[in-house]
Amino acid sequence: MSEQVSIQWFPGHMAKTRRLIKESLPLVDCVAEIIDARIPKSSRNPELDALCSSKPRIVLLNKIDLADPAITERWVEYIRKSGAMPLAVDCKSGRGLNKFLPLVKELLKDKIEQNARRGMSGKKIRVMVAGIPNCGKSTFINRMAGSKKLKAEDRPGVTRGTQWIDLGSGIEMMDTPGMLWPKFEDPTVGENLAFCGSVKDEVIDIELLARRLLETIAKTYPDFLRARYKLNGELPEEGAELLALVGRKRGMLISGGEVDTERASAVVLDEFRSGKIGRISLEKPDMTESGQ
Ligand code: G4P
């Protein structure tokens, strides 16, 4: 394996976000965890299971428009077997979101029945959205909220400033998502997040990142690379060679006929992130060593 992209994380806000989630949890009946369908393992928060153990969970596999549909299906099965309720969605187009409220009601069926027995059938079921940066939390909340009005929390003693969006069907959603952090100590996780654009490009070496990404895609989806960049035959294994090929094919040259690797890197990363190379999943369920 060639050198790996190293990413500096600054977990200064971890303690604060952990505290905010802990404070918010008693206010909600369930948690909707959003992860990136291209990297379902790398985009999960390492502590969420422990933090939310008492709350039922929906796991939203988001950005399915960018992920390999066959692998997303396998993740859906995998998550279901692990005991959470999976839902594959594309928050950008809204695909799959019509299933969200029915799923919440199914998940909270016992609670809803219990409320009805106690004469509190009007009591709303409350949901909190949580996820690592860039997984699509705001996009999800905006999509679900549409033009619905926010309702300020007026009960005394609860976290100040909490607002609730009435989604209909007896369900309310907290307007601010729980911000989580990824498993930043694992370099593979950092690299996957960087590939997907969840780490600011200013803090990473984008040429190294593009070379690593090309190596990965050449192993798993070589036909996508051949088709996108009009490459024939066996692809080289080395990222640097792949990047040079792409740069040449696209005519990205600098004086002296050398490939402008910086420009080629930006193009490769952009085309991967926007799905132009193809619908690519970087993690499969059976790649996970601990079953999580
Ligand atoms: P966050 O609150 O969790 O940090 O994430 P946010 O909603 O801001 O989404 C991060 C990026 O992911 C946004 O792109 C958003 O449009 C994109 N996104 C969210 N859901 C989906 C999805 O299902 N499919 C695709 N393809 N993209 C999704 P951006 O580049 O930051 O902004 P923009 O391109 O939308 O302007």
TrEMBL record:
GO MF, any single term: GTPase activity
Entries under InterPro entries matching the protein: G_CP_dom (IPR030378), GTP-bd (IPR006073), GTP-bd_ortho_bundle_sf (IPR023179), GTP-bd_ribosome_bgen (IPR019991), GTPase_MTG1 (IPR016478), P-loop_NTPase (IPR027417)
GO cellular component: cytoplasm
Keyword field: Cytoplasm, GTP-binding, Nucleotide-binding
Main subcellular location of this protein, as a coarse class: cytoplasm
GO biological process: translation
Positions of the CP-type G domain: 17-182
Record function comment: Required for a late step of 50S ribosomal subunit assembly. Has GTPase activity.
Name of this protein: Ribosome biogenesis GTPase A
Source organism of the structure: [Clostridium] cellulosi
